[in-house]
């Protein structure tokens, strides 16, 4: 019986040594050491042995069991380490591989201009006011002193929603809302989207952006308007930039002026950008019409104000030398990535 056990041990140790996987090792454990395993089945015959033989065989059987267990355990460690090595080898990182390219988005040129202009005016003490894109006819035209027969009121120029609402044609209704609702003095700019019934071409888009400014208080003068705009264009286009105010007519301001700046490309000498004139028109402005103040509940005998407005697309096209407004809204990344 002792010989049987020792033969079994030798056979088992050889099998364990040759095991290729942990699963295989596990099945060897069951085969030799399990409840129905080979050692157990040999020990079942112990009953046939004499009282002297029994402890001797029991001792051998335990030694065999221990030898097999420790052999299985050390083989198991060996196999584990091997598997880990294989895994590491298969997951090795190739540091020479090109990395993933992260595409970082950027602001649309229109947003860039709005941000830049807003920042300049905030530096001058203005705050930002916003309003709805669907406006009342009252806020968009009537309160702004637009004559009932003003051409901009035509169906062919304005998108009407119904008999009272329209898509705002300018950001000026934000000024009306501010004057009606805020306390004086007022010092705001209002950037935003506007809509007009225009067929798209190189310089027209039915959707476009404006930035308007409004200052209302006691003793607000045209000199302050000029000083504010001079300061603004110098910050936007450079310190050497000069302004030129040309008389104009807007229903909501009196007097009104269009504002030109010296061409920032040629400095005023004349070039294709300024059509050889040396000046570029960028703004409309003026002193707020007394009727507009009155319409908004402000007494023009006590208070005065100035306002100005500019087209964001025009500024973007000038600054980035874009020759077609439609490029700004086609969302072609090849175009937009340039800015
Ligand atoms: Zn020029």
From TrEMBL:
Q: Domain Aminoacyl-transfer RNA synthetases class-II family profile: where?
A: 111-330
| Compartment(s) | Cytoplasm
SUPFAM superfamilies for the chain: Class II aaRS and biotin synthetases, tRNA-binding arm
- Residues noted as binding Mg(2+) in the record, renumbered to the chain: 254
Where does this protein have coiled-coil stretches? 65-92
Q: Name one GO cellular component term.
A: cytoplasm
Cofactor annotation remark = Binds 2 magnesium ions per tetramer.
State the EC number(s).
6.1.1.20
GO BP terms: phenylalanyl-tRNA aminoacylation
| Names of required cofactors | Mg(2+)
Q: InterPro entries recorded for this chain?
A: aa-tRNA-synth_II, aa-tRNA-synth_II/BPL/LPL, Phe-tRNA-synth_IIc_asu, Phe-tRNA_ligase_II_N, Phe_tRNA_ligase_alpha1_bac, Phenylalanyl-tRNA_Synthase, tRNA-bd_arm
**Keyword set for this entry?**
Aminoacyl-tRNA synthetase, ATP-binding, Coiled coil, Cytoplasm, Ligase, Magnesium, Metal-binding, Nucleotide-binding, Protein biosynthesis
Predominant location category: cytoplasm
A Gene Ontology molecular function term of the record: magnesium ion binding
| Pfam families associated with the record | Phe_tRNA-synt_N, tRNA-synt_2d
Q: What does it catalyze?
A: tRNA(Phe) + L-phenylalanine + ATP = L-phenylalanyl-tRNA(Phe) + AMP + diphosphate + H(+)
Record HAMAP family: Phe_tRNA_synth_alpha1
Subunit organization: Tetramer of two alpha and two beta subunits.
The UniProt entry's sequence similarity note says: Belongs to the class-II aminoacyl-tRNA synthetase family. Phe-tRNA synthetase alpha subunit type 1 subfamily.
This protein is called: Phenylalanine--tRNA ligase alpha subunit
Species in which this protein is naturally found:
Romboutsia weinsteinii
Gene for this protein?
Answer: pheS
